[in-house]
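[scheduler] slot 2 assigned
[scheduler] job type: sequence-to-structure, two independent chains
[scheduler] chain ordering preserved from manifest
[runner] begin chain α
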Amino acid sequence: MDLDNEKLQRCLTQLRPRLFNFASWQMGDKHAAEDITQDTLLAAYENIANCNDTTSLDKWVFSILRNKIVDYFRSAHKKRSINFSSLFQAEDENNDFLDHFFTSDGYWANEIEHANWSNPENCLQNKQFWAVLDACVNQLPKNMTQVFTMRAILELEAEEICDICQLTQANYWKILSRSRIGLQQCLTYRWFGEHK
């Protein structure tokens, strides 16, 4: 890539807030997000020769960030110890979050009303939509947010997410499904304005 040192520093400085926000959203820990952001910027600066053209600088730097976040979760998995009482508490939180959707025997309580999602492309281009989506993701319980973002944003495979989060396949799919339902309901209410 043909960027002088000053222009590269300016580009990376402009990217920094977006990188930090993304890392913070993914990791849920502002201190760790700050460290990952700094590591990402340093890696980008040191390896700028590997970036092919200036139009893809943002994508290239974000791919470095994504890889560093995945590495963070992998290393956190290796260091983690399990507090069994917190597992039961997390399971209770998940159940409370979507209890109104299910009967006591696990069937749907009522038919879910779906929003009018007739033109999703328009939503994706709207900055306000992204702010609402961010708020909806952040209202999910922590483990739902983590599983959803690992799958949807970091694009990790189910097996790897199960390994990192120490989940069974069945629990992974249950958490992912519930997070999608929660996001759908939140977007229906907060974005599409369809109040029950």
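[runner] end chain α
[runner] begin chain β
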Amino acid sequence: MAAGIGVQTLIEFVSSMSASLHLIGSEGLGALAQVRSGPGGGGSRRVAFSLHLDTNTVSSLHPCSKGPKSQQSQIATANGIQPMVRLLKAESEALVLSVIRCLRYLSVGVGNVPHHKNQSTVSGSRGVKLLVALMVHSYSEEVQVESAYTLGCIALGNSDTMEEIHNHPDFSYVRILKMMYAADSRVRVLAGSALAAFAYNSIQQQREIADHGGVRFHCFVPFLRSDNEEYRCNAAYQVVVLARIIPDEEQAVSSAVGIKLLVDILQESRNDNILATAADYIACLAHTRAGVPSAIVSVNAIEFLCDMLLNQSEQVRGNSAIALSYLSFNHAGERQLLNRCRNDPYLMQVMKFYTKRSKLSPSFCGRMETFQPPRSVRSDGRPSLVRARPPKEDLLPVAMLGMEDAHWPPSRLSEEGQATGRTSQASRTSHLSRGSRRSRASRQSRGSFQSGLTLQATQLSLDTRGTQSSLQDMVLVDEA
């Protein structure tokens, strides 16, 4: 529905004077920033219809995963970020939450790839100051933790924005760490996501979080064991990113627990939204610190992601393709992916379609281009390694080849006549004499071949009688 309305119309809704249109425009732009489509991607339609019924229910319907075909650049080109930042001052809590999430979706794409232009636009529109103020002074814990999470996404991969956030006198990691012990489980999960956003691929920020007290592994255990797949998926990703600053558990253990849980979700979940989120987190971890991609490949994640390329949901297919593009840079992952793509070339076409903005391994692409499918395939789908039997014409004896040359002179004469238009008497005589010599040689070779066969047969019979007599002598000696 948001795609049918269009980016420009939604921006006009945000810039209007109606609070209801503000909420519709914010939710619509947030949906387009993710592009949720397919059977599991109808979230934007459900949100748009629910706005007319109860604006307080929007906060529980927002999607939690990103898609492969987001319209972040189109929204930025249409100047849709500035009016969104102004709505952070609205009095409606539902509208403020919707705007905060929309700004987060506009700042980061699949695989935690930052959109630097949108991040700079939010910062230049005083969005950082407003978000810090909401994180510190808001009466709602949900608004506080959502603001902290969005600040982490705006600062992800952007040193200028990160410096601006830390230079704000009211910002401190202590406020986010306190939210890890809140009574609301959703607030605790979002606080972990905020810390993971700040700590992602930044050793300096991880050190600062540890200096302010760090986070304990037991804070994540209830979510890792939860029946809620969304909580398990988020907690698994968080413990891998924050593994270095978790003091009460070994880094290798916490990383292994998170990676194994994410891969189990890929294998067992039937919810397309959860599958897309898990694939997004796998893509994030596939280009983080060394050792994590190898661990992901070792637990058979390539197979499950390749199976998800055939999912009906476009969001699941796109996120899986992007995750595989990052894993293709791992040597073991490249070999496994080559094996699957060679058996099913359609998977390669799906990955190329969804990875236009990301990058596949050049080594993987080169080896895939030089691959030629086998000519014969067995019933089980694997190529046949048994060579076919050559035709009978190729099994003629060497001595019989001379028989085929007996008709050579006429053909050569006809070819010469066609080429020159005339033939001389000397040339015909020389060809005929050469042909007669060849025919005599072929008859002699055929006679020698037949005599050779006779001699061999005679010799064989003599050898056989000699062998029988020798065997009889050996038997007599044994009996004596």
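[runner] end chain β
[qc] chain β: The longest helix spans residues 425-479.
[scheduler] slot 2 released
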